[in-house]
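Q: Joint fold for the lines below.
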Amino acid sequence: MSLILILEQILNGLQFGVMLFLMAAGLTLVFGVMGLINLAHGALYMVGAFAAAIVAAWTGSFVLALVASLAAAAAAGALVELLVIRKLYDRDHLDQVLATFALILIFSEGTRWVFGSFPLFLDVPSYLSGPISLPGGIEYPLYRLTIIAIGLVVAAGLFWLIARTRIGIQIRAGESDREMIAALGVDISKLYTLVFALGAALAGLAGALVGAIQSVQVGMGEPVLILAFVVIVIGGIGSIKGAMVGALLVGLTDTLGGVFLPQLFGLFMEPASATSVGASLASMLIYILMAAILLVRPSGLYGGQH
Amino acid sequence: MTDMTDPSGAGQVLKVSDLSKSFGALQASKNISLDLRAGEIHALIGPNGAGKSTLIKQISGELRPDSGSVSLLGRPVDDLDRVARARMGLGRTFQISALAMEFTVLQNAVLGALGARGGVFRFLGNVMRNKALVAQAEHALERVGLLSDAKRRTADLSHGQRRQLEVAVALTLQPKLFLMDEPMAGLGAGGSQALTGFLDTLRHEAPILLVEHDMDAVFALADRISVLVYGEVIATGTTEEIRNNAEVQRAYLGEEEPV
Amino acid sequence: MNREKLLNAAVILLLLAIPLWAHMAEEPFLITLATKVAILALAGVGLNIALGIGGLVSLGHAAFFGIGGYAMGILAAHAQNYEPLAEWPMLIEGTNQMPVIWLVAVVASALAALVIGALSLRTSGVYFIMITLAFGQMLYYFAISWTAYGGEDGLSIWVRNEFPGLNTLVPLEFFLICYVILCAALWFAARLARAPFGLALSAARQCEARVETVGITPYQLRLTAFVISGAITGLAGALFADLNRFVSPTMLSWHTSGEIMIFVIIGGVGRLFGPVIGAALFILLEHLLGGISDYWQIYLGGLLLIIVLYARGGVIGAISGREVAHD
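A: Joint structure:
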């Protein structure tokens, strides 16, 4: 178990965490500002990936594909908000869960209908493929490093947006008192659509970026969605900072746990059992982490408002 | 403020000592002390934002004070939560009605009786046919004048009737004291009069700490009044004393002629 | 008799009549469908206790469904392989006797519900929904990685388990077992709703402050309801696995949780027969629409969306209006 391996896995964990953050940020924003739980967020991830795959195949440009993913996901998000989500703001959480679950069914089966069950292909562009040498003798895939970079830049941009711009102030005000900002003359409907579309765009971007490493297919958003939920529960619903901390925590735990737990068990078990016990435990590790955090802080690390 | 009329503290059903609570920079309660004695109605008045709700919540157990202590029936209850204090005999009515809206009036009252008698963890047997519970519930409803409405849906009741139901549910607990948060709010003149009359008779069963804005009711009912301004009790005394207290007039009633 | 009771009576009789007819007309497939309806309805009856009465939006109820299924799978697998489950500290062998399997399924799901509920109920609102979802997924991934019992591919049982005195291989007889269990569960759920426990639980859903101020602790009520709910859904899981002679991690996935919730909502949440009507509609849609289009779930999604947005009371609500208060 070399240092290089550990560092590589840490980087993988960071990459995973940063992508989770993109998903979680949208979810937590929507909940914080609109009080809405949105199960269909994973579908927007999928839409972004599909849009990127199509545009990449059509134009050959990865950059255009990423732009397309942002645009398509934002558009899909805005459309869904206008048609369905809007009607759910005043409803209780059960209704929101059911309606957005219905949206998942419609999106998933709809996508399968149009594109079939076979995955689409999105390739890492040649200028980003291959390893890059990092200090310490690590050879790490350039693309994954790029993902980390893009994710961090987007995170910084999001923090800046919330902290420094007018929209950001409206968002923060909306999180504490929805009725108040309406009374202050802010156009609530537009703000909500904007926030929803923003969250969708982030999810779509994540989908496109990850789609190049994994496959682009129906249902790809769901495992990520569940993890994003775990992230925002850990971080505290409504908190972007919590989403970042939670995402990194989950990303690192999952990656490092998956690699090192079997090895740990291998120290005192025979290899076959070690792998299976280790793998089982690793898959449950994040949920155990979540449960542990919630025992101590029932509203998450940075939560407490909702 | 030391109280010369009852220095020994006997007959104190509720005692609040030096209660303080801050929300960030805002100090909602500043060293509040007051007590409630058997057979009395003690009114708590003060302008909006004075911290009356915060105080009530600390007494009922919904909020934990930063410092200070609350005693019920001579026992410190700072460790006890809302449920435990209710079990000890703290009856509470809410400013905004806290009732199960889908239930009938009788069902809400039976809920109260169920809480009072115990036996919640029974899975068989029809609760609405339980003679003891229903009798207790109906008795409470009769006392507030809602018995004829027993089968009506709570959501269909008028505002005033919901107030009455709140009082009825509190009654089923046969509490040792009442915390009432603006029971007159939203009642018309007739309703206020009826409730005032009712509360007057109620005090002998259990003393009432009454938060109210309706000055007519306060002056008609209260044996003692405490005035809360900016989180502090600025005066406690009989109705006469408070009416004539210059500081109170300034702070609360405005610069007016003495009433 | 009000409309709701008439509807309920019609449904429960129809559910019995159709398989009886199918048995005589030698259409075993219909009996299988009816059995599926009964089992899924049972799962929904379980959920409805927590969700309908208690207002607990558990998006992880598949955890209990799956635990029940795996209880069956594991016990039956060991029986058919003649391998004991454990030899130390005492000999535990597999079994293919349904009553024993059911007992294990119920106890296992109840224990799981106790643990999951105890942790999850410390939160509320959205946190609760997400935590229950996450726990369900935890078990799902665990089952996938547990290759000893099939992992992702699942576990097949060669022969349906046995029930003393009956021949469970005859579709009608297995159906009748499920039907009787469903009726018993419906009876119990009805009694529970009218009992002191049901009143308090429903009150806790409507107004938690009121319950606390009459001296009742909502957490205890909800945890109890959650355990009962999980146990019933677990039993349904064991029966489901027996019907298909197959158990797989899919029984634990959140899609399954969502589907169970869909039955309850379509039928009418909080209504006694909501899960029965919902399950029947779901199976009908699956087979009628599924025959026409592979993508029938789009229509299911559409139906669900319409019901949530415009017909909140589900089918029962639409037919018989507002719920009559308990007598």
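Q: Anything notable?
A: Chain C has a mean pLDDT of 91. Chain C has one domain: 3-252.
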